[in-house]
Amino acid sequence: MFAAANTYHIRSASHEDVDTLNRFAALDSGKPFTGRVLIGYLDGAPAAVLSLDDGRVIADPSRHTDHLLANLRVRAIGVRAYQESSSLRQRLLAAIPEFRAQMSTAAATSRNGHIEHELLLNGASEQHAGVQHAEAPGIQAGVLVNA
User: Fold this and answer.
1) What is the pLDDT of residue 40?
2) CA 101 to CA 143: how far, in whole Å?
């Protein structure tokens, strides 16, 4: 039978958890946990501990902790990924010089293309205006002339 997902509680260990960490270290007869540690709870009681620094895991042997351990490992992967990736601000600031370089290149190309485009349009519109208004008496190239 599987336990519901909300029966687990996982959190980072704090200074208040020194006794709990020492108790789990004694279960494994290993060295005490130091550094960043996650504690997993089942039914409100600590049931497993995972070190983020060295990956060491110790679980209460009297409890069924398989699913809790899997969730602890997934949480550890997420915490490490978050800590190893740069912040959004850092990624944006790193991208600005490249973005500015791309924009200045695009702007230079755009300006040249835009100027040529304007010249073509202005020439065409002047010719078009002259043709359009040539038939109208008293108007030359779109300007009213006193007749």
Assistant:
1) 95
2) 45
